[in-house]
Amino acid sequence: QVQLVESGGGSVQPGGSLTLSCATSGAPSTYYNFGWFRQVPGKEREGVACVSSRGATYYADSVKGRFTVSRVGTTISLQMNNLKPEDTAVYYCAADRSSCFVPKFGAWGQGTQVTVAS
Question: How far apart (Å, rounded) are the C-alpha atoms in residues 50 and 54?
Answer without folding.
Answer: 11
